[in-house]
Amino acid sequence: MNRSSIDWHARAAAATFDGRAFINGERCASASGDTFACQSPIDGRTLTQVARGQAADVDAAVAAARAAFEDGRWARKSPAARKRTLLAFAEKILAAKEELALLETLDMGKPIGASLGADVAGAARCIAWYAEAVDKIYDEVAPTPHTGLALITREPMGVIGAIVPWNYPMLMASWKLGPALAAGNSVVLKPSEKSPLTALRLAELALAAGLPPGVFNVVPGYGHEAGEALALHMDVDAVGFTGSTRVGRKMLEYAGRSNLKRVYNELGGKSAFIVFPDFDDLDRCAKAVAGSIFYNQGESCNAPSRLFVHESIADDFAKRVSAEAAHYQPGDPLDATSPMGALVDETQLRTVLGYIDAGRSEGAQALVGGRQARAETGGYYVEPTVFTGVRNDMRIAREEIFGPVLSVIPFKTEAEAVAMANDSSYGLQASVWTHHVDRAHRVARALRAGTVHVNQYDEDDITVPFGGYKQSGNGRDKSLHAFDKYTELKTTWLRINPA
Description:
Radius of gyration: 23 Å
Shape: globular
Number of helices: 15
Strand content: 15-25%
Structural class: alpha/beta
Strand order of the largest sheet: 14-17-18-13-12-20-21
């Protein structure tokens, strides 16, 4: 069925929601019976009540995960057997794509077209890719003297705590579930309290695909309750966390206070988009920066929120980007043609509007946007906003806004552009636009970022790692490198005696 022909409003009106936790293969209420309201940012209405997981629920989920790991119901299956189950899981995701897309859009406000075409499809591809990879990874034999044989093997860690954010709930969950499950671990997933519904449904689909009970558990709840309990748990072997740098620091603290579990943080960003005057297709460049900063309402850690443009073309280029912003006015998220949806909740709306006010107060000018939109709907929408007159020391240029706000900053020389781009506590992604091959390589090497794009932005694939430098964290999601996070290396020495 063509997504544009679907009456998403009718489906939303008929939708039912199950907010109970998923532990040991079953839906269940929280141990305390407490719940919290799950509200849609589209119009502010309450969708359902969700189990408010706390320490007792985390204990139950971790115990189920540990029991599943120790008895080998999943960990001791052959890689080929795990592959078959995970491929079936990916197929279940695709079969439920419209249901999952609707849950994602209602829960966190992104346009239904993006939920269906990018998030659900990307989650299924991620699970399937790791399924296909797991029986193609070989262990090693070390080059030891002839009197010995040293085997280097990978083993699953055990119980993995996965804590994911609200901006890409399905996708970020799959980036952790794919390698962790493929390697043979058990997982306890804590979704954001702002967008828990797809995570809970994924667990049901995994069970239906043949994943044994206890291997994949979901405990919804608040970060300071369920998240903290999971990160402090003495029987969790590693935590994969995606979220803010502030909470990432807490993850490291919790590891130190508990069992020194490994913590893999994928944190914030303030990515630089650098345009040199020799790049002559400025319209394509303007489309790229607008499409990247305004995609997902700007709620992307890798969004290129700092646009560095050579002073000779800065004014002209800012106008081109502002013209592109007109194509990203927020619309109804349940309309398949809407290019931008709602911010996740009122708190995020107030945060973004606060940054816009701060930009103006520090002397920057909003060339376009800068206001709340669609307030009559009861939802949380902000116009795409382009600031000029920005200095690299302003708050809007230094702090992660997580909204559709772009800062245009002129530069004089290549060295100045690199210095300003690197003058950030973050280092997630960057982009360089130039036709000079030497400059492209020189600047790409100089930028302290986990990914540097050249003459494009945010082209992506599951085959390449995602993560950053500096306070953007130490974790690398995606690619074969993700297996490093969820496996232990074991060396087994055998002595070979002479005949």
